[in-house]
Amino acid sequence: MEVQETRVQTDRVLTIPNILSMARLVGVPVFLWLILWPEFGGPKSDGWALLILALSGISDYLDGKLARRWNQISSLGRLLDPAADRLYILSTLVGLTWREILPLWLTAVLLAREFVLLVMVGILRRHGYPPPQVNFLGKAATFNLMYAFPLLLLSDGTGWISSLAAIFGWAFAGWGTTLYWWAGVLYVVQVRRLVRADATAD
C-alpha cells in the first residue's frame, strides 16, 4: 500500500473506468447468491459464479489501464476500485467458508488483515492523510487470491480437473495470503513512520 495520493485527472463520474468498477460492484451480490444458492435448496450454479469472477478480473485490469491511458483517474474511481476488490474477496470468503471449501482459520487470517487495514485507515484520517492507494504488492496479492478462489470453487467436485484445480488453488491461496499480509505489514510500517514524523513536528 502507498500513502501517497494519486493525482486526480478528472472530476467526471460517468467515465468508462468508473462504469466498469460500478459493474463489478453490482456483480458482488449476484456472485454471492450464486455460490450460496445450493445451500438453500437451489441448483448448483458454480459455472455462472466462475463466469462473474472471470469478468470481474478482466474489468479490474481494464478499469485501471483505461483510466491511466485516457487520463480518467478520478476520486470516485480511487474509491470504487479497491472497494470492489475487497467486497469480492469478502463475498468469496463468506461463500466458500459457508460451503466448507475454505477452512475457517484461513478466512480468519484474511479478515484479520482487513481489520488491521481499517484501523490504520482510521489513524491516517486522524492525522489528515488520505486513504491508502493500492501498490503493486497489494495488487499482486489480490490477483493471487482472485485466481485462488475460482480454482478452489472448481475443486468442489470430482475428477482430475477438480483435483488439479485444488492443487493450483491452494498454491495461489498460500501466495496470495502471504503477499496480502506482507503488504499489510509494510503499510503499518509506513503509517507508524508518518505518525512519528507528525509527533516530532509538533
What topology emerges from the helices and strands here?
Elements: H1 16-36, H2 46-69, H3 75-98, H4 104-126, H5 136-154, H6 160-201
As a percent range, the share of strand residues is under 5%
Report the radius of gyration as a whole number of Å: 18 Å
Q: Kindly, what is the distance between the CA atoms of the first and last residues, rounded to a whole number of angstroms?
A: 26 Å
Tell me, briefly, the overall form.
globular
Helix content bin: over 70%
**Low-confidence parts, pLDDT < 50 over ≥5 residues?**
1-6
Structural class label: mainly alpha
Tally of alpha and pi helices: 6
Question: Tell me about the biggest sheet?
Answer: none
Helix/strand order, N-terminal first? HHHHHH
Whole-number mean pLDDT: 81
Count of extended strands: 0
Task: Explain briefly what this protein structure is.
This protein is mainly alpha-helical and 202 residues long. It has six helices and no strands.
